[in-house]
Design a protein that fits this description.
By secondary structure, the protein is of the alpha/beta class. The protein contains 15 helices and 13 strands. It folds into two domains: about 180 residues, Glycogen Phosphorylase B (Rossmann fold, 3-Layer(aba) Sandwich); about 180 residues, 3-Layer(aba) Sandwich (Rossmann fold), CATH 3.40.50.2000. It is globular, with a radius of gyration of 21 Å. The two termini are about 20 Å apart.
């Protein structure tokens, strides 16, 4: 009996490293229903939370992120060697047609093992500036799929580099606003401000929005707030809104992110690459506060792409709540007061979207796996 056709993904630790892979896997199954999909991920709970609804098999690896502190190196290398060894054993036992790195330290061991075994390898690179893992793995892969053209020059020695856009889950493209509002308990007759820090929340955004609750209260006749706070700040955000924005919907996390974005008319968010791909796929204007703690500030580079196109307002995250609230107040309240401006921003966002990215990447992976 012939071995079933397989494609493996490697990465995780955040939604940004998993959602484009999930979108690609969905497209692969639509094209080849006989395919078996497998994920090599981290042991962080968020990975299982994201993948569980899909029924695919995933392997939690022992690998840890690299530290610049020398006293952490022995434990890092111990975990790394174990993860590479276990990935090699699994890939030898159930050989996939291609292994796709999706970003983050969990992509490393399976890509290294696959390269050693002669299995075709590829990377998804949604960020304008490649992260450390993708820069390291570039010498081990045959193809890189980028969200934006400007990323291509970062991979001069990879045989095949193409700007496909970032794969977006099919749910973002198949839901209407009325049903999205109904699912989330929102009033379809009001505009919706969505506040999100991606899959795990963003404390500095949460704190700034709590400072702005009084300003938003004056817009309650026309606007409602859906705030995805993350689990750590959920009670604090909910309590801060309770007095001034009693109608606000505050959730720690939602599996219905597509509905949240489709229901929105303006989004306050980080500038993670997969989040921006989702916003542009459905054409939603945004106020972006890129994550301020990364050394290379890659989210700021992502945000600049949308800001330069007129699709977003990009602000520097100053970390201190009152300072952030002060700089956000004018742009945010002004945007909420001018529907025509929001419409222009939405059109600009839509112009950047690549809703066909998942299928484009999936077709290429099928070719690489010899399954066309």
């Amino acid at each position: 009996m012939p071995e079933p056709a397989r494609i493996a993904f490697a990465g995780g630790g955040t939604g940004g490293h998993l959602f484009p892979a999930v979108a690609t896997a969905e497209a692969l199954i639509r094209l080849r229903p006989d395919l078996q999909i497998e994920f090599f991920v981290t042991d962080r709970p968020i990975d299982g939370q994201i993948l569980a609804p899909y029924g695919w098999r995933w392997i939690a690896q022992a690998v840890r992120p690299f530290s610049t502190r020398p006293w952490h190196w022995p434990s890092f290398w111990l975990c790394w060697r174990r993860a590479v060894r276990e990935a090699r054993q699994r890939l030898m036992r159930e050989r996939p047609g291609v292994v796709v790195g999706t970003g983050g330290y969990a992509a490393g061991p399976p890509i290294h093992a696959a390269h050693e075994l002669g299995i075709p390898t590829a990377l998804l690179n949604p960020d304008l500036k490649p992260g450390r893992a993708n820069r390291h793995l570039a010498s081990k892969v045959e193809a890189v799929f980028c969200q934006w053209e400007g990323s291509a020059r970062s991979f001069p020695h990879v045989p095949f580099v193409v700007a496909t856009g970032c794969p977006v889950r099919g749910s973002f493209l198949g839901v209407d606003r009325a049903s999205a509002c109904d699912r989330l308990g929102l009033d379809p007759g009001k505009r919706t401000l969505l506040v999100t820090g991606a899959s795990q929340g963003a404390r500095t955004i949460n704190e700034a929005m709590m400072e702005l609750a009084g300003d938003l209260a004056g817009l309650q006749d026309r606007w409602q707030v859906l705030h995805l706070s993350g689990s750590l700040d959920h009670e604090q955000v909910r309590s801060a809104y309770a007095a001034r924005l009693p109608g606000a919907v505050v959730l720690p996390f939602t599996e219905h992110m597509a509905e949240a974005v489709v229901a929105s008319d303006l989004v306050v968010s980080r500038a993670g690459a997969s989040t921006l791909a989702e916003l542009t796929a459905v054409g939603r204007p945004s106020v972006l506060l890129p994550y301020p703690y990364h050394r290379d500030m890659h989210q700021a580079a992502n945000a600049a792409v949308l800001a330069e196109a007129g699709a977003a307002i990009a602000l520097e995250d100053r970390i201190e709540p009152k300072v952030n609230a002060s700089q956000m107040r004018g742009p945010l309240i002004e945007a909420m007061g001018y529907p025509e401006r929001l419409g222009r921003m939405a059109e600009a966002a839509k112009g950047l979207g690549r809703p066909d990215a998942a299928e484009t990447v999936a077709r290429r992976l099928i070719e690489m796996a010899g399954l066309a």
